[in-house]
Amino acid sequence: MTLRNQVAIWIGLLLALVLTLWIFRGVLLPFVVGAALAYLLNPLVNQLQKWRFSRAWATVVVLLCMLTIIMSLFLMFVPLIGQQIIGLIQRLPALVRDLQALVERYSPEINAWLGPERAAQLQTSINDLTRQALGFIATLPAELVNIGLTGASVVGFTVLAPVVAFYLLLDWEGMVRGVDNLLPKVHKGEIKGILLEIDRSMAGVIRGQGGVLLIDAAFYATALSLVGLNYGLAVGLIAGFMSFVPFVGFAVGLGLSVGIAFVQFAPNWWMVGLVGGIFLFWQFVEGNVLYPKLVGSSININPVWMMFALLALGAVFGFVGLLLAVPMAAIASVLVRYGVRKYKESMLYLGPDETTPPNDAAV
What we know:
mainly alpha
């Protein structure tokens, strides 16, 4: 079989997979969540097997422990978190209007500090923010329905996702052997190397970055609550859970918390600076401590590519697309790097007179 035919077959399989996902996007949510749970919990099940547990009992024990932890956290924190988030959403238009009034109140000082032209630009920006906040609140229920976050879908994946995770964990080793037996014998070693690199990248995304996300959310929520910021718990959780998109969680959390701090603490600018300092300090810790330790260099995804994947898959597949975007971006990144390596080893790149490929250590 020629290389052109092989490429055509793989492209055809990829298009068939995308078409299948698009057709069944309305029922994929519990399966995606269940598969993610299985992938996350599989190392724990493997560890219990090393301790002489059977695969079935190890799966039952791990899932029961995970569900117990999730339900305990749900019962303890969700009522408080839900109350704060609902209160923040209801209060957001009033907060923006209060910020607008605060700017008008301090307009002489702002004019003297920024100058008339920049002060006018600030006033225009706040007016635009007011309109956008009011529009966002008005369209939020419809948007939640559009991405599939209805009560029925939430209940559905809450019930089905653990069942899907259980059966996937139970047969994980069999599925791995099945995939291994389907690999072409001539290229099995090379394909297994790609799959191993994808697994490392996925582990960095789901396990490593997931750990960073949870730590971010816990720190922001705790720190903002301790300084007494209104809705600090909700703002911290929003900033933490949005940090899977590079810099977006930081930017949203910083802007939202500083805006609330201006309304709440002015003219105590030290408290406003303290709230902003929390985000600047933790951004430094995240970039220099958390990511190198928990994620390392296994992801290697450009932030622009990550944002594009989230927007594109979210637009096509809805909420399921948002869940699939990050791991799919990790897989695509590995495949693109592999394609670049193969291209640099090919005659198309080297030319007919070259006999040895270039050094690809930096690729």
